[in-house]
Amino acid sequence: MKGWVRTLRRSLAEATVIDVVSLLSAIFNEAVDEELVAANPCRRLRLRGGEDNERPIANPGQVAELAARVSSLDGVMIITAACTGMRWGELVGLQWSRVDLAGGVLVIAAEDGARHGRRVGADRAGSAFP
C-alpha cells in the first residue's frame, strides 16, 4: 500500500492522493464490515495533510484587483465565480435565459455542472460580496 501511495504522489497533488486513499479506505472498511476481507490495508497509512493543504481564499479586494487586470469578459467571470462559487463548467455553460438581473439570481441547471439545478443568488449564505 505504501508503495502504491508513493506511485500516486509522483503524478498527483497531495490533496488528490488523500482523496483517493480515503475513498479506497472507505471501500475497504465496508468490505471488512461485510466480512469480504479480514482487514483494511489503508488503516495505518499516514498521509500528509492538514491546514497547509487548504486553498487560499481571495478577499474581495484581491478579487477586484485581479478582475481589473484582465479583459472585461474575464473580469466578469472572475467576479461571478468569486461571488457565487460557480465552477468553471457552470460559468462557461451559463446562459442569459437563466440570468435574472432584476432579481439578482442565476439559475444553474444540471447540464451546467455539479450544482444540479440549485439557485445561486443574492441570498446565498457565505458570499463574501453583498
In short:
InterPro entries: DNA_brk_join_enz (IPR011010), Integrase-like_cat_sf (IPR013762), Integrase_recombinase_N (IPR010998). By secondary structure, the protein is mainly α.
The portion of residues forming beta strands comes to: 5-15%
Spatial strand arrangement across the major sheet: 1-2-3
State the helix count: 5
Shape: elongated
* Structural class designation: mainly alpha
Largest sheet: 3 strands, antiparallel
| Count of the separate structural domains | 2
| Mean pLDDT over the residues | 80
Question: What is the string of SSEs from the N terminus onward?
Answer: HHHHHEEE
Number of strands: 3
Taking the alpha carbons of the first and last residues, their distance comes to 48 Å
**Oligomeric status:** single chain
Task: Report the uncertain regions.
Answer: 122-130
Any idea what the radius of gyration is?
A: 21 Å
Approximately how much helix is present in the residues? 40-55%
